[in-house]
Design goal:
The chain is α+β, with helices and mostly antiparallel strands. It contains nine helices and eight strands.
Length: 233
């Protein structure tokens, strides 16, 4: 809900990722993660050739077929981001959206393809959900070990995942919040973390959704890591 208000047909093409897709906002810039993982899955669908006829999998990696040969779109490069560098996959990013600062035909066509494909082949949304769930489980397993979330209330894990998925908090802030003496204090502290200061609507949305889960006793008697919420399963 916090990422896209539960909308599957959600696209963002104006930030450093160049293109993000779906309810989980799978971003194009991250190597071996997010949108490139979904594209690998989508290219295995029988309908893929109708939308991306110039793409194929070569040894499990996404390649573009050009007049001069096959180009590995998963090629990684260190890219300056502010005062730091970040490893990205610029070829894949530019394939989807050549320029994130202006709207061009390639960007519009890519967006149209994803929307039309999703509306005409339900497996696209199914794959999007499957990939997102695998990512969530992988990340939550890592977060649970780093922040000692196993055996604690699941609502805390929801806040930690959403915070780092959006990138609005820090390790020290999370650890400080989780060291508070009561569950309510921990939950309240996590719900206020926003180093950017511009995501109050996102915080409000997640806060409302967590409250609904608690009011409906969705996690009554369940701790994070129990069979129902085991990120390793």
């Amino acid at each position: 809900m916090g990422e896209s208000n539960a909308r599957h047909l959600t696209i963002n093409s104006y930030d450093r990722a160049h293109f993000t897709w779906g309810f989980f906002q799978l971003a194009a810039h991250t190597p071996k993660d997010n949108l490139i993982l979904l594209m690998r899955e989508l290219l295995g669908l029988s309908s893929a050739a109708a939308y991306f006829p110039d793409l194929k999998l070569v040894n499990g990696r996404v390649h573009q077929v050009t007049s001069s040969g096959e180009v590995d779109l998963e090629h990684e490069e260190a890219v300056p981001v502010g005062s730091q560098t970040e490893v990205q996959i610029p070829r894949f990013m530019r394939y989807l959206n050549p320029d994130s600062y202006r709207v061009d035909n390639a960007e519009v066509l890519t967006a149209a393809k994803f929307v039309h494909w999703s509306l005409n082949d339900p497996k696209v949304i199914e794959k999007t959900i499957e990939v997102a769930l695998r990512i969530v489980k992988r990340k939550m397993n890592a977060f649970a070990q780093r922040y000692d979330l196993f055996g604690r209330r699941p609502e805390l894990a929801i806040w930690v995942l959403d915070m780092f998925h959006q990138g609005r908090g820090s390790v020290s802030q999370v650890k400080a919040a989780l060291q508070l003496s009561s569950f309510s204090a921990q939950l309240d502290a996590l719900s206020k973390i926003d180093v950017t200061g511009v995501h109050e609507q996102r915080l409000r949305t997640v806060r409302e959704c967590v409250k609904i889960l608690m009011d409906e006793n969705v996690f009554a008697g369940i701790k994070f890591g129990d069979d129902e919420l085991d990120p390793t399963s």
